[in-house]
Amino acid sequence: xxxxxxxxxxxxxxxxxxxxxxxxxxxxxxxxxxxxxxxxxxxxxxxxxxxxxxxxxxxxxxxxxxxxxxxxxxxxxxxxxxxxxxxxxxxxxxxxxxxxxxxxxxxxxxxxxxxxxxxxxxxxxxxxxxxxxxxxxx
Amino acid sequence: xxxxxxxxxxxxxxxxxxxxxxxxxxxxxxxxxxxxxxxxxxxxxxxxxxxxxxxxxxxxxxxxxxxxxxxxxxxxxxxxxxxxxxxxxxxxxxxxxxxxxxxxxxxxxxxxxxxxxxxxxxxxxxxxxxxxxxxxxxxxxxxxxxxxxxxxxxxxxxxxxxxxxxxxxxxxxxxxxxxxxxxxxxxxxxxxxxxxxxxxxxxxxxxxxxxxxxxxxxxxxxxxxxxxxxxxxxxxxxxxxxxxxxxxxxxxxxxxxxxxxxxxxxxxxxxxxxxxxxxxxxxxxxxxxxxxxxxxxxxxxxxxxxxxxxxxxxxxxxxxxxxxxxxxxxxxxxxxxxxxxxxxxxxxxxxxxxxxxxxxxxxxxxxxxxxxxxxxxxxxxxxxxxxxxxxxxxxxxxxxxxxxxxxxxxxxxxxxxxxxxxxxxxxxxxxxxxxxxxxxxxxxxxxxxxxxxxxxxxxxxxxxxxxx
Lengths: 138, 468
Fold this sequence. Notes:
The complex is a heterodimer. By secondary structure, chain A is α+β, with helices and mostly antiparallel strands. Chain A has a single domain (2-135), classed as Heat Shock Protein 90 (2-Layer Sandwich), CATH 3.30.565.10. Chain A has helices at 17-28, 33-53, 82-85, 95-99, 107-113, and strands spanning 2-8, 56-63, 67-75, 117-123, 127-135. Chain A has a five-stranded antiparallel β-sheet with strand order 1-2-3-5-4, with helices on one face. The two termini of chain A are 20 Å apart. The mean pLDDT of chain A is 87. Chain B folds into three domains: 12-65, Alpha-Beta Plaits (2-Layer Sandwich), CATH 3.30.70; 70-356, no CATH class; 376-463, no CATH class. Helices cover 41% and strands 10% of the residues of chain B. Chain B has a four-stranded parallel β-sheet with strand order 6-5-8-9, with helices on both faces. In chain B, helix 8 links the parallel strand 8 (189-195) and strand 9 (217-220). In chain B, helix 5 (119-132) crosses helix 13. The longest helix of chain B has 19 residues, at 338-356. Chain A binds chain B through residues 1, 15-16, 19-20, 23-25, 27-34, 36-37, 40-41, 44, 48, 63, 65-66, 101, 136-137, and chain B through 1, 155-156, 158, 286-287, 289-292, 294, 366, 368, 370-377, 379-380, 383-384.
């Protein structure tokens, strides 16, 4: 099953709506709650990153019988040093974003912890692609 | 996924002889547990959480609450009324708690205890639990409708539910203990809980955990309110103010416990939140499940607006009840009384025993109503089909098909084989294309709404209204 969602940069009001809808789908598919939680946490982090940093983005979700693949493609500033961004506590979020309670610098490590496979590719000045893959059955 | 298989006991029953098939309850139910078939509301027991929203909204009194016969109290030598603080708060100011106590004794009880007597015992275990639990936020298990709601609609949150007994059970534990200490055998003691709602009955009759309730019976609060009020009116007990012994451990915190914010008041963290009314709770849990709400240690959730003061079996106005309970709490100055000193000694004496028995045992299992099939591949097929059907439906959510929404109707088609022709808009499309004649549409409507509303002979009533 295939779904597509649009994300608007700076729209914190609706940040998390994709995660919400994916969560509902996984619940209907009788996926184990622990796996749902992992997947939604990883997706939510990635979704909020687009809202916080990029101009706009698209989320492509593909659910197979035994797995979920999520691809988040944004047009934005990109990540200059991905290895550094993977470090716990490192944050590039602006002060105004942090004041809203986001940008604690746990994004990428948290995503990694909650996905079976995480691939981050980025081009500075152009955008970032995040790919999350999770098995849906233990 | 491990699931609870058998259906739970439900305290709400639908009385078909009174049901008009108006569908108010179907549209209101937060778990979409109700359908209309042949002009009657039908409850799906796997989905019902006993919140009582249907009872509240039914215009015809067609939904009733199962309760124990009052005479059952006479099966016991010692008959204890376990009465929540919101019970006495429903009576007008001119009636004193002493009169209520006297009336309860006069109608047959031998002892009266307020349910929240054990709150003093609970403060420490509550705080220890919140402090030590890794899974945050800890969600209170006080309201049984909320526990059931989480089981059926938020299966990922079952491990957040606090495994501590509510005051009702802890007070029952205390009562049994003091009787035991006076060498009175357990089978001579009957503890009867006076319930403000259906959910508590369901919770007592079928626990979602391994623990068996020490409560021997449940009495409908509205029934008892009337019985006690009448007794006071007829016998006119003196208005003395001295509190009866069964009220002795009551403090400001315990009087307010079952009101909104009652629990968070005693939890010593700044990161706590109280939410009442089922729609508000559902809204919040949706957010919580997405993890976009952090930094909350303790969540107090109640199904009814104004919590237990707004219980479906409360006779009094919920705002007046809350106001009276708050006033009673404010007027208390427990620290200064002599009673307080002896109370503290007694609490200290029993605390170790209570604390040993305060935890609930077992694991609260999900009973998901969201999943479309146990088998994921099958669930995926069904989901696609539901999606396709829902796209054809009008999205009016009118309920004419006998389901609460177009989405629910699409699900019923796939899960239960309901026909798409039950949709009135689809019927009109089919009629325009000569695929369905009037007689068939009438049959379809009768299948959902029964014959009465569509009876041909009702034309007589219509003649004056329509110029044909």
